[in-house]
Amino acid sequence: MTRVAVLGAGSWGTTLAVHLATMGHDVRLWGNDRHALAELERERENRKFLPGIRLPDSVKVELELEVALQDADFHFYVVPSQALRSVAGHVRKTGASAIPVCASKGLELGTLRRMSVVLMEVLGDPSPVAFTGPSHAEEVAVGIPTSIVAASADE
User: What secondary structure does DSSP assign to 8-70, as a single string?
Assistant: First the structure.
């Protein structure tokens, strides 16, 4: 079974956690707001960002980043673009190693770098996976078909 750490518990992160768990993966969901994470764990629903969508029992909500990362095969970065550099820096400091998947959208203010480039710089990984497409979390969460592309310099 593939273990996935989803970093970012907003609408897109929660949607990816639900989808990955539904596909049979072992999913750990982490975010920076401990109060919101505790509520998400208790209610099993992200009422702020994704109301009406239940979190499968197999999604483990983790308050501690290190626990979410432990033994993960993939790290899905789904944090706001302006937080990506900081979160990736914290991940690097833990020494956790996994395939980085960038699902964050946008450009970094100041540098205008793409999110995948920010991951390359911070993690020192020359080929993170860019995971993107014309999708909306609310639609994906309810099963509306969409297109997603996963691309990397390393097959």
Answer: --SHHHHHHHHHHHHTT-EEEEE-S-HHHHHHHHHHSB-TTTSTT-BPPTTEEEESSHHHHHT
* pLDDT (average), residues 62-68: 98
Calculate the CA dihedral of residues 133, 138, 141, 147 and round it to 10 degrees: -20
Q: Is 37 left (phi over 0), alpha (psi -120 to 50) or beta?
A: alpha
Give me the residues paired with residue 28 across strands: 5, 60
Residue-level pLDDT at 155: 87
CA distance 10 to 78: 8
Radius of gyration in angstroms for the set of CA atoms belonging to the chain, rounded to a whole number: 14
CA distance 8 to 49: 12
Residue 127 has pLDDT above 90, yes or no: yes
Band of residue 1 on the pLDDT scale cut at 50, 70, 90: confident
Give, as one character, the DSSP assignment of residue 142: T
pLDDT exceeds 90 at position 102 = yes
Looking at residue 68, its pLDDT comes to 98
